[in-house]
């Protein structure tokens, strides 16, 4: 066979394959004229997974995404997308970084990154074209609260979610294609992403699939030696969510291990250029409004979902104390990853290093929202394509996803005054699941003979696997 088949490579997949006849045979080969490629199957699985995620949001969609916060949480169909349309002025096609006084009195400045702001503005334009191009000038005379509750805006909000969902689905398909092409002999590893429960549950909660798709593309470009393109995609991802910058740090560590610091220059230059280009419209049209995203990120204290939530609720930890402690621990985590990269018997793969860095931020950062599990998904698919371990991690994330939102919806409140213990339990489950994934990746780095990707590619210390 031209590639590693999952039923012969992974015990979980082999067991599940018994339903359809068992693992592929020893003499199996490519079938001419079959008409279905590995990529075609993976894209179909991605589409099905994403569609199931949309079905799970039916309760909110049927209500026009105007349900109360409690109802959204109890139905587990929370999404920030519809709120952006009527809450940030897109219903009036207001430029997200406008400094117009009347606009700012009616709507708050967006706290999303520049690329997300451009995406939502474009989606609002498409929505209004599909809605018959309503006269937004008439809307300026209505109170913003009244306008948000009107029937016409209700229909547009539904359509706005659909427009975004179509875009997100395309991004998910592109990410799957990139991951499938990253390892020539292991295209099926992308199935971890394509069939991920996390993708179904969190795919349209927010705009996290923008940086996720960019990171998947960057990993593919790096695997092909297209370092400049990889950097450009990292820069695009960083413009939609700062965390892809950690991929550059992972590249720096890999280049340090290889003693090739010059190899880092092209991706850094193109990443900076791509980030600057995507931020330029916001920066040039309204610098104070553009700075709001950075101010909001800096001002955030111990927030929902992180271990610091538990610490703050049990000890009264404040932002002034929590912020430096959090960043200190993240710095120590990064130092630990650096030591691992430099001391490992064989140079770790890029996806492994990037996963460890991102996981440190998710575990020790001041906040954690359910959809942030998507950040690890493309990295996990390449770093540790073991279905058992990835399903354990994702099961923990699904439990956290459900318990945290049900807690916020009041379903897990006990009659006794016991505090938010169910919420703390949800956070603990998320932390344990992520640490499990981290431990599995660290093991494959320290004992490279256990790395299934390296083993299947027949690589050794002289020919390290790239991603």
Automatic annotation (TrEMBL):
Family matches, as InterPro entries: GT87
Annotated keywords: Cell membrane, Membrane, Transferase, Transmembrane, Transmembrane helix
Highest taxon, organism lineage: Bacteria
Membrane topology type: Multi-pass membrane protein
Key word Nucleotidyltransferase present: no
Compartments where located: Cell membrane
Signal peptide: none
Transmembrane segment boundaries: 36-55, 159-180, 192-222, 228-256, 325-346, 353-370, 390-410, 422-446
Pfam families: GT87
Family (UniProt): Belongs to the glycosyltransferase 87 family.
This protein's name: Glycosyltransferase 87 family protein
Higher taxonomy: Bacteria, Bacillati, Actinomycetota, Actinomycetes, Propionibacteriales
